[in-house]
User: Fold these one by one.
Assistant:
Number 1:
Amino acid sequence: MGRVNGKVALISGGARGMGAWHARRLVEEGARVVIGDVLDEPGHHLSEELGENARFVHLDVTSFEDWQAAVQLAISEFGGLDVLVNNAGIMVAAPIEDYPIEGWHKIIAVNLTGVFFGIKAVIPAMRKAGGGSIINVSSTAGLVGLQGVAGYSASKFGVRGLTKGVALDLGQYNIRVNSVHPGAIDTAMIEGMNLTQERVALHRIGAPQEVSNLILFLASDESSFSTGSEFVVDGGETTGFAHQGS
């Protein structure tokens, strides 16, 4: 307990799925958390569940003004901002010849431009605090190509590259920037998808709490010498092919 005592975190896409688990884990370990999402009702419910150490704010990550308002809420309610978890993301799946133009624009706006906006918005508060940790949730699709999700993969590769460039820019302010690359995780995003894990080393889908434990590490001072790095939590998906049934 207490691994992030005194820290204030802002989590985009925090109302449900992995984002909600990240919020619970950080509060459990002593942080105060601002939950940002376009899903107002579940966001308010989660804030009530977590109690006095959580607040909800409506956050459309494609709106820089929403980002600025979310940062201001963290400052006014909790006195500053130390951690950003850029968690919000969507998936549009289709073969490239059928990939919708509007789907491309939307996925880049949410998954990549939204991350850029979040980073831009938190810099003044983190500089004032003397440092901070920015955690950008990418995907294994940001490390290797996946069939049928060209836009998603492009956006997640973009998050990976953005992370590295920003880490170089912000290191002088003691602001660390890292990317997290989950594999198949048991959330609503993968419902209905046939994601066999027979060729994955651990032969299973991950639990969101397993990603949250990594988020906690990166939010804490335990990761104080890590920046510009990729942290993979995929059960061995990107390692190679395990023998079926072994």
Number 2:
Amino acid sequence: ISYFAKGRYFKRSSGTEVRRDAIQIAKRFYDEINFKIHQGLTHKDVITFEVAAKDLLKSEKAKLDRGQLSQVTHDNRTYRLLGTVIPFFKNRDIARIDYSALDELLNKLSKATPKLSVSTISAYMGLVRAVLIHAARKKWIHHVPEFPRVGVDDRPRGWFKIYEYKAMYKYARKIVGKTVERVRAADDDGNVTYHHVLKGHSRGGDKRRSVKITDDLREMIVFMVNSYIRPTDLKNMQHKHVDVIKGEWKYLRLNLPPSKGHKYPITTMPWAVRVYERIRTRNAERDLAGPEDYVFMPDFGAKQRDRALKLLQHQFDALLDLLGIKMSPQGDPRTIYSLRHSSIMFRLLYGARIDTLKLARNARTSPEMIDRFYAAPLMGEMAIAELQSKRRPRPWER
């Protein structure tokens, strides 16, 4: 497509061989150029959303290289931009993206199959906002348009009761070294289900995947519940990040790589010390306890850490299925992240005079996040002692 205006040619590929579509794209291109002329911006080429988005991705890659962004976050943003957002806006002039265009995208995401959660839709719209803010900083647009409201869908992950936590540890220790198979089964009506069984105990069905249970599983369960860490910390934790403190108080000081914008050390519960020392002793027997070695799944090197975490996730998922506790009584799904949730819940439930701000900072989160996601299941009965407590009357009240 070529259009001559203000003494110069503006060109753009239509990206289609269908005549009718090409005509519509040409008309839209004509409108965009005239809009630019009206804004007085014809001294530069029209900047499309795709150009701005890919320029943002270059900045995101630089953040990843500097350690300001995790690989998982970078990959998620790249996947969402390239797979959904850029194809939606494609060659649209970024200066012409307004509330109406953003509402179109929101409606498309809301009708996606399989259905996206509100938090996932918010993440997509947040990426679009990031592209527009990037364009404004580059002076490709004058302002960031108003965004349609997505809403909030706070869905806390399931957590574990004390008896479930103990059951997980005991059973994980019992089946160390055994293989668990994920089996696909279909009933007479064709309904397909998946379940896990110990190898040799299958009652029919097609085996889809198998995983061997390792010592790392049982150690991970206790360590996470006593350390507040996230699953990504399991993947990244090296022995150089761990300081063992033994004095009036016994704990680990975890100087982990930054996560979710937080970089301060984490202080663990005493049980984490015992678990860590047990792991370090076992790994040292295989010469895998040096400063640069990884604490969990040390056989997997730096380039295989995503696979290491994935194998731990498979083991944990199999354990939950074998115990029949993959879902909480409230219907919330449980994952490895539920161990972190349990860690925070146990402090809220059983800690004496817990300061939420201090707890949040130590867990590398915020008081607002604790209130919205972690403390959401904290019902009145769980704090009956505090609710029914009485202060001593002051002298003038007697």
Number 3:
Amino acid sequence: KDYTVAAITFSGTLSDSNVKKHRDILETWIAEKNLKVTGAPKMAGYNAPFTLPAFRRNEVLIPVEMNK
């Protein structure tokens, strides 16, 4: 099934505090755009564990419904 997500990309680790910080930023953006959240946030990390944190690419993804 196709769906749309709002996403924020960030570097560093996937620590609880780093994920929460960026999830909060994304949730604020979603509210400002009046989008409807349709699912739970997910986190994604795209690099090997030995990649230095400054060079890691991570995302928080939140499913949303676009305004019609």
